[in-house]
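Dock flavin-adenine dinucleotide; give full complex structure.
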Amino acid sequence: MVSERKQCSKDVCVVGAGPSGLVAARELRKEGHNVVVFEQNHDVGGQWLYEPNVEGENALGKCTTLKVHSSVYASLRLTSPREIMGFTDFPFVAKKGRDTRRFPGHSELLLYLKDFCGRFELREMIRFNTRVEYAGMLDYAVFGNDLRWVVKSKEKKSEKVVEEVYDAVVVAIGMDTWRRKQMHSHIYRVPEPFRNEVVVVVGNSLSGQDISMELVDVAKEIYLSSKSLDVSEGLSKVISKHDNLHLCPQVESLQEDGRVLFVDGSWVTADTIIYCTGYSYSFPFLDTKGIVAVDDDRVGPLYEHTFPPLLAPSLSFVGIPRKLIGFPFFESQAKWIAQLLSGKRALPSRDAMMQSIKEFYYSRDVAGIPKHNTHDLANFEYCDEYGDHVGFPHLEEWRKELCLSALKNADANLETYRDSYDDLEALQVAHQSPHFTQLGTQAFPM
Ligand SMILES: Cc1cc2nc3c(=O)[nH]c(=O)nc-3n(C[C@H](O)[C@H](O)[C@H](O)COP(=O)(O)OP(=O)(O)OC[C@H]3O[C@@H](n4cnc5c(N)ncnc54)[C@H](O)[C@@H]3O)c2cc1C
């Protein structure tokens, strides 16, 4: 819906300088808004800013877990091929002297994000080491376009709290908290501390599988506990190859003597339990007087996973949807937000947005999808329909093809899919497409 209203520029606070915050800042500025990005960390990158130190000492000299944002472990490599990840106008190309693999290690993605910042001069908008402690409505009674926000932020060193007023807040903080029990994969970094241990890895997720495969060389025994024993061909192959890796059912209970009981009555005595049970949404600084809430990992109500009908477009969220090709989707969200704030476009009525949310929830219920998977979309058509709200290009066929072939390959060949693939035809099409040729000779795709 394109509106006739006069365009205007707003003072916008973006929380977070990860991939979604960075692209949000770029799109907002392009649309003429004044943007300040708050980032609690010392650099850009979000999850991709690897933090090796996860333990510290408290005042009593006791070892404690530090509060770190990144869940990335040392050996982590991308699960999606680099070609599909790039923002539309900034392909993620291999560069000489860097990690040129198609599924590079995490630090290569950080370098890509740093290049993105450099190319679009984003750093000047970012206040580093500055955490947003509070964002709440200035005048609770005023909704919609006239809504303004009080933002209180604290700089790490000075501990000084600064209070400012913004026209809009864009929350771009990804999945902030982990379901913490024993030890969560969030604080797993390297396999060495588990040498000769019996380890139970709970959760057959991508990180659960990655960590188990890494532990086979150091741990005595690894028990990978999975909700379903009906696992992919790739995982079955890995399990049959390693004598010390076992698949077992869900954990029933933990005993004080160190035994871990499984639901089928079997048990093992474990030295360590690593929970790879996923991450949760959490916005501790955000005060919406209950208008937006997180309930069993459903952030809502959010129209198109982005806008709370009562507070939009003044409040918006980038980066909530999961299981889709992330970066271009974040970019389309950012464009829509920017154009709504400038008045170039308008949202449907609040009632219509609420109705759309209700229908979405209903369709998920009917499909038997649990509430905590509300934002797991896994749907290319959805990305295209979403983009249509703001005239954003549809996903290229090669992007979809490369994404699907990587998923299929991972399913069948878990240990090797990142280094051995048979999608070279689609890859060639990708490299010859305008997405890759737009940079001219600056960089070379592999
Ligand atoms: C282990 C792991 C592996 C992954 N692998 C892949 C992959 O292979 N491919 C893929 O596409 N995606 C992958 N992802 C998904 C990944 O989360 C996204 O790629 C992306 O990082 C999400 O970007 P974001 O900006 O929304 O959030 P984040 O990257 O989490 O960034 C959020 C930023 O907000 C900051 N912040 C939070 N709260 C505040 C506050 N109050 N004040 C100021 N700053 C704040 C944080 O410090 C952080 O910098 C992976 C995720 C994990 C955890």
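Observed: Residues 350-366 form the longest helix (17 residues).
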